[in-house]
Amino acid sequence: MPRTQVTTNNLEAFWMPFTANRQFKQAPRMLVAAEGMYYRSADGRKILDGTSGLWCCNAGHGRPKIVEAIARQAKELDYAPAFQMGHPKIFELAARLVTYMPPGLDHVFFTNSGSESVDTGLKIALAYQRAIGQGTRYRMVGRERGYHGVNFGGISVGGIGANRKQFGAGLLPGVMHIRHTHDAARNAFSRGNPEHGGVEFADDLERLVALADASTIAAVIIEPVAGSTGVLIPPKGYLERLRAICDKHGILLIFDEVITGFGRLGAPFAVDHFGVTPDIVLTAKGITNGVIPMGAAFVKKEIYDAFMNGPEHMIELFHGYTYSGSPVAAAAAIGTLDTYEEEGLLTRASELASYWEDAIHSLKGLPHVIDARNCGLVGAIELEPIAGQPTKRAFTAFLAAFEKNLLIRTTGDIIALSPPLIIQKSEIDVLFETLRGILKTLA
User: Fold this and answer.
1) Does residue 222 form part of some domain?
2) Are residues 138 and 123 part of one domain?
3) What's the CATH number where 139 sits?
4) Residue 13 placed within a domain
């Protein structure tokens, strides 16, 4: 039985993720309800969601088709084993999802988060190279400032120092990193894809190939648009050049679309927006509108087929999770796809992109604003750090925004924005007018 006498306050037991726990528990910011574009705070205020929760609630909050699908499924079939058994909903979902992918990316493996999707993609890449007789290919190539979740595979290929330094001894061996694509000197305040550095930055992969030899490299993993590090948009020609280099050297190309997937850029996926097809696409977040944990790794047919040999009673890939493709998550995803399709949300960002772009770049010239960048319905405003106090200026803006009924996200001294795709122009106006007022008063 729980103890009846609690000696700490009721916030103390929860060790919060990616949070300044001591600061939060002194002045909690509690959300208690959500509908459409808005959260409701514990003190009854409507909070405009400028971040789709954590990049995930692309259709907004409290969507009826998703809520009803979850309730029906929980009553009908709450759980089914994922190993050696199946249920109809997950096959229905897989068949629908692959129709959003370019031809050839026609198989999908289900996970429970973006972090699990990343580790799944990395394991499939390694196992595939071995299956085709390329077992010497054990290296993974990530990118500086890349974010690929928080499991050991993800932080190993990730390139954000703070996410790695506490766990150094546990990182995967043999991982290398190409340079990041941010060039403030040449590309500050770019509208959409920056003009400079695309081929140059991609060619850094050739440097690693020369150093380690292509015969040791299994895969390259990148975010088409780097999200959590501060919305870094790929320069023109960058993704095309990476694809060409990978093809040249027999290296798999993996796109981490956990953030860019499901309409964020104005097309269903970044593969559509940029017209570049990788070998593996990793997703999560928007697949269920953030309501139920779920992720998915899409792979090309030739990758799947490479495992489909040997005795038919034998397991082909020794990987999976207890909740891979659970019935309730599958129902949530189907309800989410229905919502996206019926409301045209997978392409709606393209209709708002120019208005969104103008709004972001209208902040140029305000105190401490040193860059603004955008793509689809995602954007960032970079602030000059306070000397000796990195992150404090942006965090101060975050706290001020919440007090002014706006939820934003900050990473370092960058304000990152990714509102639900249902946002109206009037709400974009409110979002940026609120931000404008905050930025004018920041110390």
Assistant:
1) yes
2) yes
3) 3.40.640.10
4) no
Cross-strand partners of 318: none
Structure tokens at 255: 């796109």
Are 170 and 96 in a shared domain? yes
Burial of 224 (0-12, 13-18, 19+ CB in 10 A): buried
* Angle, helices 88-97/327-343, rounded to nearest 10 degrees: 40
Same domain membership, residue 352 and residue 317: no
- Percentage of residues of the chain with pLDDT beyond 90: 97
pTM confidence score? 0.96
Calpha distance 269→280 (Å, rounded): 13
Query: Which one is predicted more confidently, 267 or 9?
Result: 267
Share of the chain above pLDDT 70, in %: 98
- Min mean pLDDT across 6-15, 107-116, 139-148, 397-406 is at 6-15
Of 296, 154, 294, 137, nearest in space to 223 by CA: 154
Confidence at 170, pLDDT banded by 50, 70, 90: confident
What is the pairing mode between strands 280-283 and 409-411? unpaired
Q: What is the rounded (10 degree) CA torsion for 431, 232, 375, 119?
A: -100
Residues 336, 224, single domain; the answer is yes
Strands (E), 295-368: 295-299
Q: Measured over all CA atoms, what is the biggest interatomic distance in the chain, rounded to whole angstroms?
A: 68
Domain that holds residue 392: 21-62+344-441
Q: What is the residue-wise DSSP string for 49-94?
A: ESSHHHHT-TT-BS-HHHHHHHHHHHHH-S---SSS---HHHHHHH
Structure tokens at 435: 């931000």
Residues 182 and 243 in one domain: yes
Q: Which two tokens stand for residue 396?
A: 């101060």
Domain boundary among 304, 323, 343: 343
Residue 323 sits in the same domain as residue 336: yes
